[in-house]
């Protein structure tokens, strides 16, 4: 009797990984990029402040947050836009909240940031490059949170990298 139980246990243990493969898994993997890689791969780099934030349902029935960024300075890209719309999946509508780990955080009017962007991306995806990796928030003291540098120093460093890239 014990042998039959042991056989079933061994069979079930061996089958579990195969059953797991039978069902689709949905995940996003973002590969870390250096500043040089970001500069080479994006369409636009801007500095600005969020002046409005809205959440809505996308055509794919996902919550999307859109933030209007008042552009103070464009470091890379075509044209000189006064404002740009930043998009990120997730947000809250009528008590329904969707959180997407790794997505840019675009929920605060007055938030200052340096943003690496793509110009053409589907509505339900973020146009901030490589999700949150393309967003450098600046705190109230003027420090870029991810690097600990003053905003002006980080921008100068970034301008040097853009010039060195030939873009």
Core attributes:
alpha+beta; 3 helices; OB fold (Dihydrolipoamide Acetyltransferase, E2P); globular; about 170 residues; single chain
Kindly describe this structure.
This protein is of the alpha+beta class. It has a single domain (35-165), classed as Beta Barrel (OB fold (Dihydrolipoamide Acetyltransferase, E2P)). The protein has helices at residues 2-22, 35-41, 151-165, and strands at residues 44-57, 63-76, 83-89, 91-93, 96-98, 112-117, 135-138. The strands form two sheets. Strands 3-2-1-6-7 form a five-stranded antiparallel sheet, covered by helices on one side. It has a two-stranded antiparallel sheet with strand order 4-5. A hairpin with a 5-residue loop joins strand 1 and strand 2. Helix 2 crosses helix 3 (151-165). The longest helix has 21 residues, at 2-22. The relative contact order is 0.18. The model is unreliable at 18-25 (pLDDT under 50).
Give the class from helix and strand content and strand pairing.
alpha+beta
Radius of gyration, whole Å = 22 Å
Mean pLDDT: 85
Order of helices and strands: HHEEEEEEEH
Strand % is 25-35%
Number of helices: 3
Strand arrangement, major sheet: 3-2-1-6-7
Oligomer state of the chains in this structure: single chain
Based on DSSP secondary structure assignment, what is the total number of beta strands? 7
SSE blueprint:
Blueprint (H helix, E strand, L loop, with lengths): L1 H21 L12 H7 L2 E14 L5 E14 L6 E7 L1 E3 L2 E3 L13 E6 L17 E4 L12 H15 L2
Antiparallel strand pairs: 1-2, 1-6, 2-3, 4-5, 6-7
Helix pairs in contact: 2-3
């Amino acid at each position: 009797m014990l042998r039959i139980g042991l056989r079933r246990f061994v069979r079930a243990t061996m089958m579990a990984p195969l059953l797991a493969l039978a069902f689709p898994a949905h995940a996003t993997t973002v590969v870390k990029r250096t500043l040089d890689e970001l500069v080479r791969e994006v369409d636009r780099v801007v500095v600005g402040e969020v002046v409005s934030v809205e959440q809505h349902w996308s055509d794919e029935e996902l919550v999307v947050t859109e933030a209007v960024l008042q552009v103070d300075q464009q470091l890379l890209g075509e044209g000189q836009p006064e404002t740009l719309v930043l998009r990120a999946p997730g947000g809250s509508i009528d008590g329904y909240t969707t959180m997407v780990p790794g997505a840019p955080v675009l929920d605060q009017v007055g938030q200052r940031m340096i943003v690496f962007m793509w110009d053409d991306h589907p509505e339900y995806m973020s146009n901030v490059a490589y999700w949150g990796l393309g967003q450098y928030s600046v705190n109230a003291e003027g420090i870029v949170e991810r690097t600990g540098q003053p905003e002006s120093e980080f921008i100068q460093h970034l301008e040097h990298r853009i010039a060195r890239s030939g873009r």
